[in-house]
């Protein structure tokens, strides 16, 4: 998800006329990282995060394991399952998150869940799904989708490096290629099955880059939700609106590289009221911009490394353009595009290109979602599911 870099504190971007396309430069949203307990699952090292909503969770597990009575264990398990039902979808997601060690040094937060019967999934050949958030978001941004998708699919979601509860290493230079490599390695080391990649914004672009690699054999299909043209707005140089504002973007880059100024801007951006206004400008459905969403975006911004990640991403190279990559992808592609998107509008270069793709490539299908902004899956999840589920079903039966 893209949200504004919001340089209100230095007097820029006051005009709504100019900000409609630049106001999504970038923001941040990083999730709470906490103390973790290490276990091993197969060849991959994982870490179970303790339950933040039930401080007795660790003792609860030992009670179940050490109980000499099978019936008592069953009763205990059922009681905790009942307790889980009282949790919100956000709380359930946070509780189930694991950590994977990438390249032996970076802790990557991820989630896996499925309510579907394993024999049914095997029989119907349903592929696993990997959800990849956009800039400024994290795993909980999919909280309105995971339960629905998990009914028939094993659903994975990941916090990209620099976001959510994943590591935010100091002085790291973030690139689109880095995130694409992270996705490829996650497929190879964790999922280990042909998977449907579902991404939003820069998460979509990272999926495109990962899938365009001719050596990648674990991509079954791709779903792009308002795909970004680059890691930041500087990628869209053939849009007259960006050409007009390029000098301003370069000035913002210069200011953000000054530590004191960057810190002041960042502190201002992550204030609740500013975040709420930014999100409202990104969403078509204003009712979806609730306090829970604001907190999902706001809370992790206080983590060490959050400011550095913000500056690196906003000022860094935009990375590969999807226009140059889509012709390399022969797997089925579903495009879901909100028509109220101000970051990658349908009448902009990226929007026009993707709108023309179905007539050029038989593997591509496009649906335009009316009244929807840059984050369709959270903006109007019911409209996304209406198009996504039949497409996935057809893919699974092919």
TrEMBL record:
Signal peptide: none annotated. One of its GO terms (biological process) is chlorophyll metabolic process. One of its GO terms (molecular function) is chlorophyllase activity. One of its GO terms (cellular component) is chloroplast. InterPro entries: AB_hydrolase_1, AB_hydrolase_fold. SUPFAM superfamilies: alpha/beta-Hydrolases. It comes from the Eukaryota. Residues 127-381 form the AB hydrolase-1 domain. It holds the Pfam family Abhydrolase_1. PANTHER family: ALPHA/BETA-HYDROLASES SUPERFAMILY PROTEIN, ALPHA_BETA-HYDROLASES SUPERFAMILY PROTEIN. This is AB hydrolase-1 domain-containing protein. It comes from Lupinus luteus (European yellow lupine).
